[in-house]
Amino acid sequence: MSMSDGTFTWTYVIVALIAANLPWLSERRFFVWPSATPKSAAFRLFEWLVMYFVTGAIGLGLEHQMTGEIYHKGWVFYTVTVSLFIVFAMPGFIYRYDLRRHLRNNRRA
């Protein structure tokens, strides 16, 4: 059973959405190693950047599998994909730095 191009595309978008939010939702370092102290914002940003490259590598693999080759991409492509990955990360970021605090305060009240 083979997946259609549309199924590959939507699966990839869902993977990218999850990958963009993981650094903000997990206290484990690179989602594997437990951390004795809470992760800093800088480390979460570094994890997010690593996830951008991992997601990009998955995308290149899917592109090669679907078309048989990897096409050249200019700077505009990477600017758009970083911007999209930033937008995808907003729910996790807002939860980590704003919503979680409000939810804790409402529980106490």
Automatic annotation (TrEMBL):
Transmembrane domains' residue ranges: 6-25, 45-62, 74-95
Keyword Membrane found: yes
Keywords noted in UniProt: Membrane, Transmembrane, Transmembrane helix
Listed InterPro entries: UCP019883 (IPR016768)
Entries under Pfam families matching the protein: DUF2818 (PF10993)
Annotated protein name in UniProt: Membrane protein
Species in which this protein is naturally found: Acidihalobacter prosperus
